[in-house]
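Appendix B. One record, verbatim.
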Amino acid sequence: MQNAPRVTAFAAANLPTVETHMREIVAAVGPGLLRTMLLYHLGWSSTTGEPERAAAGKRIRPILVMAAGLAGGDVSPSAGAHWAAAAVELLHNFSLIHDDIEDRDLLRHGRATLWSVWGVPLAINAGDAMFAMAHQALLRTAEHGAKAEHSLAALNVFDTMCVALTRGQHQDIGFEQRTEISSAEYLEMIGGKTAALTEACCALGAIFGGSSAEQRIALASFGRDLGLAFQIQDDVLGVWGDPARTGKADSDLAHAKKTYPVLIAAERDAEFKRRYFSAIEAKRDEDWLRDRMEACGAREASEAAASATYQRGLAALTAAQAAAPALSLLGELARALFGRDA
């Protein structure tokens, strides 16, 4: 990971174990098309089932689990933390499969999405399988040395997060048919769709790392604020980021996305709101839209909101009084994510 040497080394040392666990869980489904679909989505095979290594994201969420697992003083992530990290990554990928279907996205990480290759019914079924497999991975923690009460507490955190994810997605889908959306509603939505998962990652790591109850609460708060700050910053980059760096051919304005800076601008500038949400606008003047957003302070307000949330997260991390390795890794990861330009 760019500008995060400790995190990069930590990931290199631990992610292979997480991947091994994920492969073990997926393999248990048996041979056939379903396994091919799951392996393909995870970037491990072609559409014909031939071994392949495709882009699969930065694996930030499992890294969060394992780094938070060091907060209680462990020198390396426990077996429970590794299995919990595998569970989180499988759950995250379940959500991506269903998101792609609901959003009708044709590409993910530069490859055709699952539904666009095999159709919606089979893709929904594959996503459902991965949801169940995520729970199977989490329950493996009890088989690999975790205390039963820790596995039970983790399951509660995990399923609470699942409900929050689906609630956030429900709100996001509902926003597509609305033009009257407040920035506060948007923050509530990303609190479920994005931040609930990063919050759970830190809570799960704390559980399997033997952290105190107070540490768990503080680390979960850190994870939540990190997720919120990440999404708000991502929204800023979606409007003002360099396409050569972000990898997006078009800005979020071209697709009329309802992101945080857009909603701030809509609350402050009636003419911007009218033109942005007008169904009869055949061609979007993105330069005009950006200028209006700048003029009404939407960019400044969004960057300030992201920064304030990020700082609040760092304060929670400090309050956790985590062991030095966890503090170093989580702090470096937060700085790398917040300081990115893509």
